[in-house]
Amino acid sequence: METLTVRRVIAAPITEVFDWCATTTHYTRSPFVLRARLARPGEGAPYGVGAVRLHTWLIGWFRERITAYHPPYDFDYTVERSFPPARHDLGRMTFTEVPGGTRVDWTTTFGVGVPLIGATLTRTVAKPVIAHVFGSVLAAADAALTTPGTPTGAPHDRTP
């Protein structure tokens, strides 16, 4: 298992950054996320505890469940199923007010589910690719929230 954290400061208020990142359909603004949708709303909020999110990335398909939800400070999720198969112990996004905006820390603990070579694939291939995709999603958040005139609420799902 490997733990990865990607950080970025976004020059926007914490509530806006949290809401953007909690809304999974926004992730399709990254060129690496092909499809993202809310399959089941959560308790008390669409992306609250119990919400089920489905993501199709260039690197695979993921079914995630929100396990903790504390707006605007953090939420946790777990990957219940994926293709290719992977083990997943933690997914967490935390949001902290800092001078100039909001710092986002996106952390995941995971492993590639391939016998014998899974640990090597996790470390040498999956970890850098996931870091790049997470960074791309946070860059999309930054662009959406800091570029004047950019709509923040409209998803850009590129699936036919």
Automatic annotation (TrEMBL):
Protein name: SRPBCC family protein
InterPro entries registered for this protein in UniProt: Polyketide_cyclase/dehydratase (IPR019587), START-like_dom_sf (IPR023393)
Domain of life from the UniProt record: Bacteria
Gene3D superfamilies assigned: 3.30.530.20
